Amino acid sequence: MSDLALKPARQDVPDYARLQTPQRQVEASQHGTPLDLDKQYPDLAGTPLRINGAESCSANPARYKQHGFHFNADNCIACHACESACSEKNNLPPHLAFRKVGYIEGGSWPDVRRINISMACNHCEDPVCLKACPTRAYTKYAEYGAVLQDPDICFGCGFCTWVCPYNAPQLDPVNGQVEKCNMCVDRLEQGLKPACVAACLGNALEFGVIEDLPPGRDQVKLDIPGFPDPSISRPNIRFQQTRSLPPSFQRTDGVPLQYQRSAPGEAGFMIKPLATSGKRSWGFDQLSSRENPLVVFTLLSQFTVGAFLLLFLLPQLPVPAALAFGIHPTLASATGWVLVALQAMALSLSASHLGKPHRFYRGFNNLRHSWLSREALALSLFFGALAAYMFVTTFPVLTAWLAPTFSAVLPDLAGISAAILGSVAIYCMARIYRIKARPFWDHWHTGAAFFASLLILGSLGMGLAFGMADGLAGRASDELLRWFSLPLLTGLMLQAFALARHLRYLARRGAEADVSRAQMLTTYGRTYLARWTSLAVLMLGAAVISLSMLPGMVALILWMALSVLAIPHEIIGRALFYVLVTPTTMPGAFFWNNKYFEAHARKTGLARMPQVGVVPETH
What we know:
Strand 1 and strand 2 (54-56) form a beta hairpin. Strands 5-4-12-13-14 form a five-stranded antiparallel β-sheet. It has a three-stranded mixed β-sheet with strand order 10-3-11. Strands 1-2 form a two-stranded antiparallel ribbon. The protein folds into three domains: 15-247, Alpha-Beta Plaits, CATH 3.30.70.20; 284-579, Up-down Bundle (Formate dehydrogenase/DMSO reductase fold), CATH 1.20.1630; 591-619, no CATH class. The protein starts with 36 loop residues before the first helix and ends in a 15-residue tail after the last helix. The chain is globular. It contains 17 helices and 14 strands. The chain has helices at residues 37-40, 81-90, 128-132, 159-163, 185-188, 195-199, 292-313, 320-327, 329-352, 371-394, 404-432, 445-472, 478-509, 511-521, 525-546, 552-579, 595-604; strands at 49-51, 54-56, 67-72, 100-108, 111-119, 138-140, 147-149, 170-172, 177-179, 205-209, 237-240, 248-251, 257-261, 269-273. The model has no long low-confidence stretch (mean pLDDT 89).
């Protein structure tokens, strides 16, 4: 809680800025969760809350009840006073905002309607950010039910910004860390409402025990148009919206989706893709993203694991590929050391993507909940086992002092460990992206795509290395490549099946998933079609080689061509994986919280003006 500080309580605070006594007794929230947090955490009841080393223990009788915000959309006038008060209270730079006011617009002139939505952290009952954070920078407190984050512990991976459906955690590219709303717990301890609530001019924001209806209100709805699915994390915010609404709304922040009424007379709204011209384009100028290091990191790791599995497992089988390994032992050893170097490069790229790369070791802190921590550990152990395998096989003298029985099985133990750990690492890597707030990723296609890349890249790389060695030695390589084409074909067929099922899933799931599908078929339509074309060419070439229809040199030339084609095929496919995501985020405004305006500001030079609130991307 580095941005909190206890200050002497003021005596001239008006009544509207003070916490009110709950008007009614409610035992559970609308999500079915008990509101009395002291019963869930009996050891913490009555203990002081430490804020920057200072102890505080308020006498508020509702101190251990879950608190939250109540937003009246009918009253919000988008004056941004709540934003300003929050920024001033937390001393935020222009490029950060813990509370943001976005809006959606609908209707037609002159009957145009706007819904303004003021949103900060909702201090959820099931905070997905807490479970996802690999450094354990988040804590759910019994006091007021606040979810607090310590930026000093954070190392800036930004994973919490992926999993949160509400844009609450803010990644600061200047300081390389995440920060977010802290519920103003220092003010709560003094009996005051959060700064944003006290500053609201239109009486749109209220705060208190979450199910306690504020004075003058008659609704405590769980959502309104523009608010993501509350079942993801059970947020502690309630809404009121009683004015009549038009049949559809559009966002002004550039996200190509709209909210349409489910049926005439019904209150619910569905998310639909924004109508487009339907023209296909390449979208190459939009393929680059902040996640470019992750494109290289994931593909390198999958290639390394796939190549090692073949390097270690094929010699155990009576196949021509094993014969090639025996004929070229120096190449086999050199290939293993190249894999060690490539995996070291991949781990370095992963660390360089962090806001604080020198704090990379904190990524192992949340093995209990975070798949990111599990992936980091599994990949690190795989790297260690791979290096150990290469050392004991390349330099047997290092194990000569051990018992003969143990030294004989040590290479196999290291190899089996590396094979298992590598496979587990890729599984953990796939699990990272199964995020409910990002429906484009939340499908088994993600895991299938990762393991397909493992097979495709690994088999092509190993086949190319040993096929060329056979060719230079004057031996026919068609039989060798025929065996390597089997895992290659398996990976290609898995990728084709997963892509086809994924496209069907996106259309069936609808909402943000259907928005991603529409972008994939229009903005990146030609690129997506080219990917299918290259996939078909790769499958045809692998099938021809597997059927032994070509002489050795021709098969080797075709294999080299397939290897060259596979590199852009996989890189572009992985880049699309990152840029096509449409997250379940809150609507922004025309300038505020608008990634399209941010790109425009960087392109035109507006980003050089600090007051614009846009900074260059540093990693």
